[in-house]
Amino acid sequence: MDALANQSELAGYFADCLIEEKYSSDLDEASLEAVKQELVDKVNREISQAVFDNLTDDQLTQLEELLEEGDSVSASEFLQAAIPELRRLIVERLITLKEENN
């Protein structure tokens, strides 16, 4: 999983799954969009927190520099090297979020 390149796609998909699981189809479009945006924000925070919790201060600085340069490929490669278990950590965070949402 490319945590950077796919984060917004993952967040949107996961939010859709949570909405489908928890909310009735009786929600109007504006309410549905508000709920989805709130869930997407939560998913993004959880993914970011999984990254931040597992990097040293020096690694965070390196990551910030790569992101400021707009080099998402290098940033992704950096994350994969710095946090080899990143995929597992993200999945754990999302499972927790799913459990909290139910």
Query: How many H/I helices?
Result: 5
Gap from first CA to last CA: 26 Å
**Helical percentage:** over 70%
* Residue-averaged pLDDT: 85
Q: Overall 3D geometry?
A: elongated
Q: List SSEs in N-to-C order.
A: HHHHH
In terms of per-residue confidence, which ranges show pLDDT below 50 for 5 or more consecutive residues? none
How many β strands by DSSP? 0
Please, could you describe this protein's structure?
The structure is a single chain. The protein is mainly alpha-helical. The chain has one domain. Helices cover 77% and strands 0% of the residues. Helix 1 (7-22) packs across helix 2, helix 2 packs antiparallel against helix 5 (86-101) and helix 3 (57-68) runs antiparallel to helix 4 (72-82). The longest helix is centred in the middle third of the chain and has 24 residues, at 29-52.
Summarize the structure.
By secondary structure, this protein is mostly helical.
Name its key features.
single chain, 102 residues, mainly alpha, 5 helices
Topology at a glance:
Layout: H1 7-22, H2 29-52, H3 57-68, H4 72-82, H5 86-101
Helix pairs in contact: 1-2, 2-5, 3-4
